[in-house]
Structures are given as structure tokens and as C-alpha cells.
Amino acid sequence: MHASTTLPACSVLLLSGGRGQRMGGRDKGLIEWRGQPLIAWLHDLTRPLSDDLIISCNRNTERYAAYADQLVADAHQDFQGPLAGIRAGMAAARHEQMLVLPCDAPLVDRALIESLLAHAGSRPVVIRQGSYWQPLFCLLPTRFKDDLEQAWHAGERSPQRWFGRLSPVAIDCALDDLRLANLNTPETLAENAAPN
Description:
The protein contains seven helices and nine strands, in the order E-E-E-H-E-H-E-H-E-H-E-E-H-H-E-H. It is of the alpha/beta class. The protein has one domain: Spore Coat Polysaccharide Biosynthesis Protein SpsA, Chain A. The two termini are about 25 Å apart.
């Protein structure tokens, strides 16, 4: 499919590089939910939005390749967290904006993504629930690539802290907004197994 003409051009980064500790070490993005892998839900949602779909993954690259234009991996194989995936995605992104989503949030919908894209500009746009920022649901101008590199080399590993320094634009969501649910445990997968 072609990228949307009504929304700004963006790269899409799907974060799938974690250890999967809450899933017994299983690769979360490849866990089946409602008949297909979690990553497939995010792929199907974001594919029409971009000609540059990137997946950050540290294993099972042959399976992830079917869902992406590019695969990136953390520079270190010791799972340094989601900021490492964002860093790798920023280095590969081909557009001025990069939409970031975690692979274990298959309830995200087009309206939420459009609200992020509608605020595209010179600052990051980040989902906020109450006073808590959700930096793994964001739109990030790729011009911050050098800033992230400097922060990384200075030891920063927290997306919360790094995004906080960038004065992000907030997209406010309710604390109980199910679209932001991370299905990252067997219990949350089971609780959300039936379609609404």
C-alpha cells in the first residue's frame, strides 16, 4: 500500500527487542494473540502509513523480516532497553518524523496514531496518561538523532528522562485507555483474548 497523503510522511518503528522476561523469555512480538503474532497487528495498522516500516529486534530476524522494510538491532546484544531500539531506529529512519510503538500494544488504533501525527512538528509528540508520559507511544522528529547519540554516550538509558529533556507535546489519554494496554504477560494476553 502507499503511504497516506493526508498525514505527514513518517517512518514507523515497532519495538520488538526486549528480553520477554514477563513471558518466560519468549519473543513477545511473535506470541500469538487472536490468531496472529502481536507484531502482525501493529504491522497491519501501520503499513498503510509509511513506506519505511522498521522493526527493532535482537532475535528471530527471519520471522520479523516479513513485517518490515528494514530490521535494526541494538548495537549491544545485552538488551539495553527500549532507548537502544529507538536509537537504532533513528539511525535507519528515512523520513523527518518517526512513529514509535511497542510490539506488545495491539489495541492501538488509527485514531490514536492520527492524533500523534496531527501534531507533527519540531518537538516530539508523546502520549501522556495523567502525569505519566508514555514515551514508547510517540512521534519523534529524526533531527534529534544526534541529541540521542550524545545522551546515549553520556550513559542515558531511560526513555522517560531523555524525552523529558526535549519538551515534548502531550497527547492526553485516560488512565484506563485500553488502546495503550501492554499485553506483556500471559495474564494480560488472556484477559484481552476475546474481541470487544
